[in-house]
Amino acid sequence: MARLLALFPLNLVVFPGEKLNLHIFEPRYRQLVRDCIQEGITFGIPPYLNNSVGQLGTEVKLLEVEKVYPSGEMDIRTQGVGVFRIREFYRQAPDKLYAAGKVEDIQDDAVGDPTLQARITEQVRRLYDILGLRKLLLDLPTDYRIFDVAHHLGMSQTQEYQLLAATSELERQELVREHLDQTLPVLMETERLKDRARLNGHFKNLTPPNF
Question: Where does the record place the Lon N-terminal domain (predicted)?
Answer without folding.
Answer: 4-182
